Amino acid sequence: MSDLPVPVVVDPETGGWSVDGQPMILIPRHYYVFIQMEMEKRFGIAATAELFHTAAARAARLWCEREALSHGLAGVEVFCHYLKRLTERGYGRFAVEAVDARAGRAAIRLEHSCYALEYGAGAKRRTCYAFGGMFIGAMEYLAAAAGLAEPRLMAEETQCRAEGAACCRFEVRPA
Ligand SMILES: [Zn+2]
Prior knowledge:
Blueprint: E1 8-10, E2 17-19, E3 22-24, H1 29-43, H2 45-71, H3 76-88, E4 93-100, E5 105-111, H4 114-119, H5 129-145, E6 153-159, E7 168-174
Antiparallel strand pairs: 1-2, 2-3, 4-5, 5-7, 6-7
The structure holds zinc ion.
Zinc ion is lined by residues 113, 115-116, 126-128, 157, 160-162, 168.
């Protein structure tokens, strides 16, 4: 497993995977995205987006808290490390174009989004909204770690590969 971009540890007893001490599972991309697709059919896109935002923000914040401790990272380093790890785990190629925890603002470019790839360009709409929740959770972590007031943030995918754009782009800003 030395070729993997993240240090996967497999427990010989349980078979469970972990990276940096955090439990992980390796799942097929199509399955991960099919969950969203099926939820959209059953509950609608707006309700699905809200659910993913909430769950993703909660997960991202916890992830950042744990990683900051295990790697001794602080501030914007944690945010950049988070997007680096998402990239290394195959969600797509993320680039932080701007991040300002105090202002509650960030801009992120994403190429090869796992959602856009699975939906295909024929989707003709933006499909990668779950990442917005992840960015919000990571920004919330930054604010909390800096002792700032709990921010109310929103994230928007402003363009998407699945609607024909060259890449996906996201903006985080105060709600
Ligand atoms: Zn997208």
